[in-house]
Amino acid sequence: MHRIIPPVLTGGPRLAAAFVALLLLTIARAHAQEPAGALRGKVTDQETGQPVVRATVLIVGTKLGALTDLNGVFMIPRIPPGEYTVRVSYLGFATQETPGVRIGEGVAHLDVVLRGMLLSQDEVVITARGGRGTEQALLNERRKSSNVTDGISMAQLRRLPDATGADALARVTGLSVVGSRFVNIRGVNERYNATQLNGVTMVSTEPGKRAFSFDMIPSSLLENTIVAKTFTPDLPGDFSGGLVQLNTIDFPDQMTGRISLSGSYVDGTTSQGVELGPRGSGDFFGIDNGLRTLPSDFPDTGRINELSYTKDRIASYARQLPNNYRIAPVNAAPNLSFVASYGDRFTLLDNDLGMVAALSYRNGFDKTAIIRHDVFSTGQLHYDYNGTQNQYTTLWGGLLNLSYKLSDLHTIGVKNTFNHASEDELTMTRGAFQTDAEVHSYVFRYMERTFYSGQIVGDHLFPAVGNLRVQWRGFGSLGGREEPDQRRIAFNRPLDDTAAPLQSTLGQQINTNGAGRLYSSLSENLAGGGLDLTLPVASARIKAGVLVENRSRTFANRLFNYRLENASRSLIYASLDTLFEQTHIDTNAITFEETTTPFDNYSGESHLRAGYVMADLPFEIVAQRFRAVAGARFEDNRVIVHTADPNNGDPLAVNYVTSDWLPSLSLIYEVTPRINFRMAYSNTVSRPDFREFARTNYYDFITNALTTGNTSLRRPFITNYDLRFEFFPDAGELMAVSFFHKKIIDAIEDQVEQTSSELQLTWGNTDGTTTGVELELRKSLGFIAELLAPLSFSVNYTWLQSSVESDTVPGKKGRGLQGQSPYIINAGLYYDNLRLGTSVTLAYNRFGERIYAVNRSDRPDLIEQPADKIDLTISQTLFANFELRLNVKDLVPNDKVVTQTYTKTRIDPQTTVKTEEQVTSRASVDIRQRVISLGFTAKF
């Protein structure tokens, strides 16, 4: 098994230099063609916020003019310098005239908002367009959406210290983040949610999860994030909690650039020694330079053991592996973050070419104290240990998006996003584990994750065919996860004799508590295409489309375990640094054996064919305005998984085919232009993923749990009910109340334990329901007094309740769904003084206790306790184009605590009276630290 490095990383400096040179040449040539005088802008509908297509824009007193394109954008080139009046008109809207528009060299900008003739004849002109990234733009999109949606804008993201998409999503109503990567939406765990990037389904980089890792997305690359909480037929039907729609930064109307640089101080880590394993020259960027890869002459197929190789040959292979079971302390420098972006529009062959490019990089050292404790229902100890987890992480990536207007009615574009994340980790623990021995355990772990998403899109309008709009896309995504050379070793001595020398747990037989290495590789590819047709019919819109998606995944493990021959038993007293020296590797000393089995690997493919039709129909009843959105989606899906039977190693195949009709009905009552009342009903599914089917075993040496798949899983079928009242009092303000209920048949829960003497986890089906209420308020305090106008606040609260209706785990029927919190709170207080350029944000987040893992009936469930998260951001604008920013993340650090509650029985020795009491123990604790960042941003 060899590491797969994306081609973008292997071209070297020449390839990078050639790409940069080509990009600069393109920009220079496009600028050279830019007219001396031009006018560009956008025309939108004041009521809906939608672009007005084919509006007429004229320079009064000349023959110069243009029609707006599919995005409402117009461009009038070659205008002689001077001062003009600009007239904008469109059927059904009041004509707008803007006098005093100055045209000189370069491109002038004018954005116009048209109002319906029945509403007002007043002119509204906006001279600075905010784009999709403003809070108001997000609320406008939410107000006119056919779905129940929530989200977070770029403007909000820049107020917060959130570095990744996962951090940012924790601020959205009804969402909580699990494990710093995954998102729980409306009380159902991550497997019930779907993710799209610029409208394309994201591949997973997680071998054990049906979920996207949101820590892979730098928040600095996002224009906004919208979470669709109800289903409409033009969306994928494979979600229940929510569809997270990530949208990268958009094309600007004029040249814009941004460079940000910051450094962070982590309490208890920065400037202190962080203990890691041996490091390579590429670790700064999270790219292994070969230090951790298998030697090139290791056989790719077959197991290295005494059935296939001589002892001498096996020893020679073992000696090729480096002795990197060593601790290499690193002085933790301040964490670094860098972001650069550039966007512009050019005139190329008399048409608009839009471009946006961005790069980001961040790294981080972290040293976390951990405590692990587990008991049986009787209170009998299972294990009890503590230690530290040392980490160095990187996240870097970029995007390059291009859009070209073939004409006012036809555009094509390409979008490319690439991100790379790495984790270098050493976990050291000390304590007791099902024995009377004191165990010292070391796990060295290094991981790289990458993903690429690319697409080519087209948008076309055909006035001759009833203004039919045709949108098409072809897309591909690549994901990968490499975990080379995970190394483990343990030492022990009697609990009651701390003076005794430590002995390694190497033995004559291979065992999971001994020493070994794991090499793991995952790759996942997705390719497909889609077509959407939208036809206006009077005031209604009919929409139909098709989608094809093909996905494949390959996962491979190779495991090597060491053993010690009798002739060299004294080596069990060797230290961690010296145990695996070259002189100790021999046929009569330390040797190894490959223990890879057929069920350590799996491959899978899925084929989705989908089609839909829907209607968006506005109507009136007794002068009251309504809007109905109704339709259905058909999805035919086949999942094929190739794995092996753990009992005998025989090949095992899963061929799971489902065909589902998924209806959807939404009714929107527009009480006023600012007030909506929404009702929605839909059916959705949540199909099992490759890993959930595959019988592949994975042993986690941190939690001491063995996870395997379940070939008998059934796909969950979900019925969704939603109600929402929303009021938009003023710009950037919102009041909303939502109610939802979900009935889940055959719900899949992860971390449901099998009945076994071992700590084993799998996935199982159960029936369940979840119900919730969401409250949200965003309001400026200017209504109290003008002095308070710079102050505003936001708060959202989610109440959740769920129940498992089947007895999947004996004795635990009626419990809540795994991962659901009974409540989630987000709050923010904002101060924005535009005159001084000062902005202050104080943000708060809290979730209620939730089931971290469902244990067997003989062990209490693991419950993650609530934690308060308080963040502070202060920014100050200097010289108009520079900004200083101070972030304090976890202002008052709260530990991550997981508890167990069990019944302890006491018997009085004199009276033999038996009493019982409830005892709560801290099963898992991760000590959190405060992070302080200082940085600057330059805009041009």
What report would you give on this structure?
The chain is mainly beta. The chain has three domains: 33-126, Carboxypeptidase-like, regulatory domain (Immunoglobulin-like); 135-252, TonB-dependent receptor, plug domain (Ferric Hydroxamate Uptake Protein, Chain A, domain 1); 328-939, Beta Barrel (Maltoporin, Chain A). It has six helices and 48 strands. The strands form six sheets. It has a 22-stranded antiparallel barrel. The two termini are 47 Å apart. The relative contact order is 0.10.
**What's the CATH topology name of the largest domain?**
Maltoporin, Chain A
Structural class: mainly beta
Q: Report low-confidence residues grouped into runs of 5 or more.
A: 1-35, 118-130
The helical percent reads: under 10%
Mean pLDDT: 83
Radius of gyration: 30 Å
Question: Strand percentage, roughly?
Answer: over 45%
Taken together, the total number of domains comes to: 3
Gap between N and C termini:
47 Å
Q: Helical region count?
A: 6
CATH class label of the largest domain: Mainly Beta
